[in-house]
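Q: Given only this backbone (302 positions), what sequence would you predict?
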């Protein structure tokens, strides 16, 4: 733009070609504000949290077949070349010591379909894998359901390798020392629960394990009703009121042991019905109530 001697444009210069300082300043300010607003929006936008990476720990369940079941096992123990238990499976659920944000239990499940024989001592190893998120917390309990048709198994150990650590990026190893019998689900539907080796006082039991501990205690105590089955784990006690057989002969009447008149240690309660002639104080003898005479009820050992 041409200027005269006073530093101003000539009088005949078109005014529309003169740049407006106010307009220029407005354009610059608007551009800067738009850039700042865009930057602030990008900074304030919530970042979606990446889903916690799930670990896949390997689980090995070592069990032993109980010799003497009513039916033959699906494993041919006489054949050293037979290495698999084909029929049946084990259903496992891991429980965390923590609850989720909604107050529900954290749990993951897996199924072990087949077992492999180890050696010649009737040991069978089942394997499965869990998908455990990093936010799962510490594993405090595991439940096992024996889905074999008629075979009771002695579960020795449940070993978990590769569990996610709640504080580091490393993995941990955990073993449940069970050493307990598990009846087929068709015989006993009570949930078999195994807890970790860490002990808690009742008031210090983690929230994620409280319901399971109460449930396991109920399974052991029973409700005082019904007749005991061979697969039960109930520890309930009664006097010895099954020593007599008055229905067969009056000469076979016997006193009740365990009351005030004849103090005696208690026996496991069986819940059998009373005799016809002895009244409510006498129970039918166990040998006459069970299918196989001579069997005596005792809770399935843990």
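A: Predicted residues:
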């Amino acid at each position: 733009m041409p200027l005269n001697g006073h530093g101003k444009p000539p009088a005949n210069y078109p005014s529309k070609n003169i740049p407006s300082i106010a307009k220029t300043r407005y354009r610059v300010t608007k551009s800067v504000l738009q850039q700042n607003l865009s930057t602030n929006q990008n900074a304030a936008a919530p970042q979606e949290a990446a889903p916690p990476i799930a670990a896949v720990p390997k689980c090995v369940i070592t069990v032993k077949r109980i010799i003497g079941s009513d039916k033959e096992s699906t494993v041919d123990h006489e054949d050293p070349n037979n290495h698999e238990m084909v029929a049946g499976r084990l259903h496992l659920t891991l429980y965390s010591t923590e609850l989720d944000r909604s107050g529900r239990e954290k749990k993951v499940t897996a199924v072990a379909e087949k077992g492999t024989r180890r050696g010649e001592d009737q040991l069978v190893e089942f394997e499965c894998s869990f998908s455990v998120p990093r936010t799962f917390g510490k594993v405090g309990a595991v439940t096992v359901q024996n889905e074999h048709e008629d075979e009771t198994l002695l579960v020795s150990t449940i070993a978990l390798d590769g569990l996610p650590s709640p504080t580091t990026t490393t993995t941990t190893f955990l073993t449940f020392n069970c050493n307990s019998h598990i009846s087929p689900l068709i015989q006993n539907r009570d949930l078999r629960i195994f807890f970790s080796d860490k002990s808690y006082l009742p008031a210090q039991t983690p929230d994620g394990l409280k319901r399971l501990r109460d449930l396991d205690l109920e399974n052991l105590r029973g409700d005082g009703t019904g007749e005991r089955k061979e697969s039960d784990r109930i520890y309930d006690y009664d006097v010895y009121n099954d020593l007599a057989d008055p229905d067969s002969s009056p000469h076979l009447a016997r006193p009740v042991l365990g009351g005030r008149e004849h103090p005696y240690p208690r026996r496991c309660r069986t819940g059998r019905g009373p005799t016809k002639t002895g009244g409510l104080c006498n129970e039918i003898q166990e040998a006459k109530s069970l299918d196989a005479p001579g069997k005596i009820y005792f809770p399935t050992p843990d």
